[in-house]
């Protein structure tokens, strides 16, 4: 999925890759048997615990960034 970055936006999803400055990305989710979750210090992980993550891979340099599903809408929704 290719993005058009809005450099004025405060949305980190709209910014170019911090490694190579390209903006050609592929979106996905981190993989494991149950997905990858962010659990804050002292947080409880388990049923209903933690925040799911989106992953964005730069197709130019391979850098991968993670974004909280609780904070950002589904990047696969383009319309």
Number of beta strands: 4
Order of helices and strands: EEEE
The percent range for strand residues is 15-25%
Mean pLDDT: 74
**Approximate helicity band:** under 10%
First CA to last CA: what distance? 13 Å
Low-confidence stretches: 1-8
Provide a brief overview of the structure.
The protein has 79 residues and is mostly beta strands.
Structure, explained:
With 79 residues, this protein is mainly beta. The chain contains no helices and four strands. A hairpin with a 5-residue loop joins β3 and β4. It starts with 24 loop residues before the first strand and ends in an 11-residue tail after the last strand. The N terminus is likely disordered.
How is the secondary structure organized here?
Layout: E1 25-28, E2 37-38, E3 51-58, E4 64-68
Antiparallel strand pairs: 1-3, 2-3, 3-4
Based on the model shown, name its key terms.
mainly beta, 79 residues, elongated, four-stranded antiparallel sheet, 4 strands, disordered N terminus
């Amino acid at each position: 999925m290719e993005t058009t970055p809005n450099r004025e936006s405060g949305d980190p999803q709209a910014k170019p890759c911090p490694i190579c400055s390209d903006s050609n990305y592929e979106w996905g989710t981190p993989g494991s048997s149950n997905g990858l979750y962010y659990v804050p210090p002292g947080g409880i992980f388990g049923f209903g615990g933690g925040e799911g993550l989106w992953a964005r891979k730069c197709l130019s340099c391979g850098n991968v960034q993670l974004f909280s599903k609780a904070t950002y809408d589904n990047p696969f929704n383009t319309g």
